[in-house]
Specification:
Length: 311
């Protein structure tokens, strides 16, 4: 799309549903660009405020830097002029800077910065890492607070002062006290995005903490259901939210929790169930077994009769 200034991007992202498209693979585990382009084009028909290609659900951790470039370029081209696309950045600081520059070259709208690979880091070290990436690009940057790289409120406030293009924080921690401290200190300087697995389960309480949006993995295969759920959350329609949680989301989470890595695998399984297969997951992830696929198929059937899969 046409380039957005960081604050314009922040406004767009903070006022609508976001999603991570899965990355499509052939049976030989190669990137299936044609199928992926078709998927992104389909998702763009629904009311979504931004896409994060090659992100967590898109198996960023299993892609080569060149594959990341191919995936993001395809997403940008298929998303068109009105849908922001945020490219992933991460691994080492040097690699993260290289990926940020790749994002610029393929005309991404912004960057989602993942934690540095593997190593633990101090708050000062994380500030230096994130600042180096922000300084290397003119694009708006959203930092993914999770795993081995959790920023506290003071370090985040320092970064917000140092980096005008740091526009958001994606929370993958689930620490209510920390989110309260962060919002109390920074207020609306940043946008706050829910980033826990199956973010719908946390969406309503997180709204009270200033987290106005979240990235929905369910949107990959139940886009209209996901949009309706987000609409109910923003309206604080508790009855509708809890009905949708009871009838679909929480039973889905029960399947998801059976094996590590299923937060991604179950999304690709959902696409297969609705007839839009994205192929297998790459190792070290594992696909759902036949019994779990059958269970998911039955569960999806309970909602598709009232939530059309096409606009």
């Amino acid at each position: 799309m046409h380039e957005l200034a960081p604050q314009d991007l922040a406004e767009r992202l903070g006022n609508g549903l976001l999603s991570f498209p899965v990355t499509h693979f052939t049976p030989e585990l190669q990137f299936d660009e044609s199928a992926y382009r078709s998927h992104v084009s389909w998702l763009g028909q629904f009311d979504v405020a931004g896409l994060f290609p090659a992100g967590g659900t898109g198996e960023f951790f299993s892609l080569s830097p060149d594959e990341v470039r191919l995936v993001v370029r395809a997403a940008v081209e298929e998303a068109g002029d009105n849908l922001p696309v945020l490219a992933p950045s991460g691994m080492s600081t040097v690699t993260a800077i290289d990926l940020a520059r790749v994002a610029e070259r393929v005309d991404a709208s912004g960057i989602l910065l993942f934690p540095p690979y593997l190593t633990e880091a101090s708050q000062g070290g994380l500030v230096a890492h994130i600042r180096a990436v922000c300084d290397a690009t003119h694009l708006g940057v959203v930092y993914y607070n999770r795993a081995n790289a959790v920023l506290r409120e003071d370090a985040l406030a320092r970064l917000a002062d140092l980096c005008p293009n740091l526009i958001g924080l994606k929370d993958g921690v689930g620490d209510i006290e920390l989110m309260t401290k962060i919002y109390a200190k920074l207020g609306d300087r940043l946008i706050y995005i829910g980033g826990l697995p199956t973010a719908e389960t946390f969406a309503l309480p997180y709204l009270q903490l200033g987290v106005t949006t979240y990235s929905s993995a369910l949107f990959n295969f139940l886009p209209q259901f996901s949009v309706d759920f987000y609409t109910a959350v923003r309206a604080q329609d508790r009855a509708t939210v809890y009905s949708m949680l009871r009838n679909f989301v929480l039973p889905y989470v029960e399947i998801r929790d059976r094996k590590k890595g299923y937060a991604v695998s179950i999304v690709k399984a959902g696409l297969k169930v609705v007839g839009r297969s994205a192929g297998p997951v790459r190792p070290p992830l594992q696909d759902l077994n036949d019994a779990e696929m059958s269970e998911l198929d039955t569960l999806v059937a309970t909602v598709t009769h009232s939530h059309a899969l096409l606009p």
